[in-house]
Design a protein that fits this description.
- There is one protein chain.
- By secondary structure, the chain is an all-beta fold.
- It has no helices and four strands.
- The chain has a four-stranded antiparallel beta sheet with strand order 2-1-3-4, with no helix packed on it.
- A hairpin with a 4-residue loop joins β1 and β2.
Amino acid sequence: NPTNGLVNLVSEKSLNSTCFKIINIAGQVVYEKKERTGSNFFFDVSEQASGIYFIEIKTPGSVSRTRFVKN
């Protein structure tokens, strides 16, 4: 953190039926992937404007958010 283009999320355990949203500081969803499975996820944000973004990670049992900065 920060990134110029690729964001990589790694989980200690495999995630099933996971939905990811990348949300800009204005609250707009700029990227969304549904029903993803695995433990290593890549997101290309090179086309997005510089600024602060949040990744929302939604699994069948929980929702979490993490923040990153795009240069």
